[in-house]
Amino acid sequence: MSIPSNGQYKIFNAKFTNQDADLLFGLPTTTIAGYPGNSGSLNMVWNFNAQDSNSNFTGVFPGGDLVPFTLTNTASSAIGAYASVDQSTPGAALYGSSKETIWRLQSTDQSGQYQILAPRSWDSCSLTDLVWSLASGDRGAPIMLAPIDDTASDLSQVWTFQPQNARRGINDLD
Question: Quick one: 64 exposed, middle or buried, by C-beta within 10 A (0-12, 13-18, 19+)?
C-alpha cells in the first residue's frame, strides 16, 4: 500500500469520521485532540515529513514495513510545533512541542487507512506497540496512545490523510 508523500494533510479518524487531529487553539504546546473538520483552520493541517528509511526507527511488524515520519503543525501561531508525546505509555496524551518526535506509519488492509505508532519506549518491558487512538467523537477529545489492535478492526485507532493545497509559507497565512 502506498503511503502519503511529504506534504500537508488533515488527519481524520476512521471511526469518528468528522474528527481530525487538531492542535487546540493553534498554540504550540496545547493538546492534540479530535475536532470537527474546519476548512479555514490551519490548526488541523500537518506537515508530513517521512524520515530516512535507514533510520533506527524502522522495522517489520504486523502489517509490514513501517515508515518513520514527523508531523509539524502549520498554524502561524504554532510554526515548528511537532506532534509529540512525553512517554510512550498507554493513556499518554498527544500535544504540540518543540521536541521532534518520530512516529511510525503502518498501512492497514483498507487502502488509504493507517495506524500511527508511537516511538518505542526502550525502558519499557512491554513489547506491545502503542498507537494514536481517539476514544470518543466529542469535540476536543484528546488523542491518546493505546495498545495496538493488530487487526486494525478498532477504527478509533485508524487514520486517513487528506491532502491539502500546496505548502503555504508564513507570508501566505491569514
Answer: exposed
Q: How many CA atoms does the CB half-sphere of 145 hold within 13 Å?
A: 22
Per-residue pLDDT tens digits for 43-58: 999 999 998 654 443 3
Extended beta strands in 32-163, E state: 32-36, 46-50, 60-61, 64-65, 67-73, 82-84, 95-97, 103-107, 113-117, 130-134, 143-147, 159-163
Give the pTM: 0.85
- 116-161 pLDDT tens trace: 999 875 444 455 789 999 999 999 999 999 999 988 899 999 999 9
Contacts of 29 (CB under 8 A, 6+ apart): 81, 95, 96, 97
